[in-house]
Amino acid sequence: MAQQQFNPVPDVTTHSDARTLFNSNFADSEGRLSALEGSDSSLQFVQQSLTSSAGILTLDVSNGHNGVVTLTEDVDLVLSGSPQAGSDGLIIVKQDATGEWAMTSTGNTVLGGNFINVENVTVNEAGACSVSWYYDGSDFYLYISDFV
Description:
2 domains; four-stranded mixed β-sheet; six-stranded mixed β-sheet; 10 strands; alpha/beta
């Protein structure tokens, strides 16, 4: 539904007519905003606290596009969910006190950057790196940042 213009006619248009039109436009605007809130774009601001299980670290992008994890074991990163083409996000990776845990990724993923060397992140959470991801509609592209 398109927004309707208010063009009052002198001595014809009533306050009731104006109120009805304004309420209709308000309802239309509210419906459009609600549709946007439920879209994939609203997930780009959600941060998940990630944990691994049996060597699998999963970021389900239908729960949010971003995550933070402290590695406690070698993991295989899995990106799941139903992202839209053009979706992207970021995962902050830290090491626990043991450190030197590795991260790999398999499946429908293209790796870039220095991905295999996640184990070089400083231990005791004193350092971190970020794994950026982008989905083009068929493949996830991953890139790891420099370590801080």
